[in-house]
Write a structure and sequence with these properties.
The chain is mostly helical. Among the domains are: 22-92, Tetratricopeptide repeat domain (Serine Threonine Protein Phosphatase 5, Tetratricopeptide repeat, Alpha Horseshoe); 94-157, Serine Threonine Protein Phosphatase 5, Tetratricopeptide repeat, CATH 1.25.40.10. The protein is built from eight helices and no strands. It starts with 22 loop residues before the first helix and ends in an 11-residue tail after the last helix.
């Protein structure tokens, strides 16, 4: 099981000469592929790309030329172009394993683009061509897990949106209720103030007893004087009613 699987590329294929081609064309193509392989190993991927393309100009059906050109494009992160070259390599493989390696690398290009479903199909093809490829098996499991997470996130995103909409609606309702309550509180406060003002105004209109300026002793003496005066008046009244009664003369 490889660790940095996204950047693991299958080996540079060795050149197999096709007997159907003229000897000069075969030699020229194979020489350019060897040149590209050397440049590839030095991580001179753009130069290797140029060499592989020249080789393919002489032999466009070269599995090695297409496969290795795909590798050089892959390292330059040109994944779509690399896929096309791997697909060309699958059409004319020299060995069954070559087709498996090309499908595996196609799966890697899809994985780089986070196209999990497409990468899964590619790894399945690689395993069908080479069931012993543990790297393809590992990448297949990884892509399946990532696809599952993606689907969950998309589903969760929908749920989150619905929840956000629901929360937004609730917040709006809460704000409306708050505004309504604030208005009611203001009204109640105003009514209470109006009632207080009316009460104060009414109290101001009613005469109020003035506070006495007499001391307690002075008030006591005043009460005693009033009591004596009242007693004297009563005595005078009694005097008026006393005396010798006038007799009524008899008519003899």
């Amino acid at each position: 099981m490889k660790k940095n699987f996204l950047h693991t590329i299958s080996f540079i294929a060795t050149v197999t000469l096709a007997t159907a081609l003229p000897a000069a064309a075969q030699e020229g193509s194979s020489k350019l592929i060897r040149q590209g392989n050397a440049q590839y190993k030095k991580q001179q991927y753009a130069d290797a790309e140029a060499s592989y393309k020249k080789a393919l100009e002489r032999n466009g059906k070269s599995m090695e030329g297409n496969f290795n050109l795909g590798n050089s494009l892959y390292e330059q992160k040109r994944y779509e172009a690399a896929r096309q070259q791997y697909a060309n390599a699958i059409k004319t493989p020299t060995r069954k394993e070559n087709a498996a390696d090309a499908s595996y690398n196609i799966g890697n290009t899809f994985m780089e683009d986070k196209k999990w479903d497409e990468s899964i199909q590619s790894y399945k093809k690689a395993l069908k061509a080479n069931p012993a490829d543990e790297q393809a098996r590992y990448n297949l499991a990884y892509a399946q897990e990532m696809l599952k997470k993606q689907q969950q996130q998309q589903g969760g995103g929908k749920d989150n949106k619905e929840q956000k909409d629901k929360d937004k609606k609730q917040d709006k309702q809460d704000q409306q209720n708050k505004d309504k309550q604030d208005k009611q509180d203001q009204k109640d406060k105003k009514d209470q103030q109006d009632q207080k003002d009316q009460k104060d105004e009414k109290e101001q209109q009613q005469p109020k007893p003035k506070p006495s300026k007499l001391s307690q002793e002075e008030a006591q003496r005043l009460l005693q004087a009033l009591a004596q005066q009242e007693k004297k008046l009563q005595e005078d009244k009694m005097k008026k009613t006393k005396g010798t009664p006038v007799g009524v003369e008899k008519d003899w």
